[in-house]
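haha ok so turns out i had the wrong file open the whole time. this is the CORRECT one, sorry everyone. sequence first:
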Amino acid sequence: MTAILLLALLIAGASHYVRWAIHCVAHGAPPWWFVAGAPVAYLAPIVLLVTASFALSWNWRTPRPPGMQLDVAGSVRLFIGEVFAVAISWPLMALHRLVILDPAPAPAQLPVVLVHGVLVNDGVWLTMRRYLARQAVGPVYTINYGPPYGDIEHFAEQLGTKIESVCAATGAARVVLLCHSMGGLVARAYLRQRGPARIKQIITIGTPHHGSVFARAFIGRCLAQMRPGSVWLEELNHNETKPPPVPIMSIWSRHDSLVVPQGSCELACAENVALVGVGHNALLRDRDVMRLVRGLLG
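then structure:
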């Protein structure tokens, strides 16, 4: 559904822009204006969205320790990195069935399953997936769960089906779950449902383990579950201080633009790694994040 909606919006926007350009050129406007203006037209709504998210995240931010503040140059890099990550992700999500394919069945010792976040699909993983392939990590599989506004517990059931199919295709006994955003909650919900038999490790990236205030601005069952203080989160985290049945690492950014407060990503039973100067979507393209993941996966 996400891909269909994005593809429809991209086609509609491009069509409207081309019609407008043809009309203006027919009335004497220089054609090069519209060629040069196409990237601006595409980036304008993204810039607005990212600006709004950073502005709002500032209000509810987690206090940053000394030395974790950004100067002007760092703030500019943070903003541009997030804009670029979102700009790249839209067409990748729209065309994800063409650019993201699971590997052919073959024996493997430790497959990796990538679990995306809320309101997106596996297209967001393209950069990370290619990086892991170059590093000979994997094989790497992805999942697309839904419907977009459904129950996280239902998403966890779909993840369970995917894990079983990956194990059948590879002969592996266990997999590693690499998760972004809400995907980390889906993985933990799966762990609570079915136990650790099929999981060697869970790595979460920018996961709101204690919710995000931004979830209050949206409708849908999964968004309600991600609101800070929700009954679902309280139940998921009620044994948070006890050692988990499998190792969990939470990689997060002190400047996350969508998980607010950013400290919500810290999980008492996990190894928590805090980064600086990376936006929520940009985490999946960040070199430090990829190197961390590569080190964990060996």
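The chain has one domain: 1-298.
again sry for the mixup
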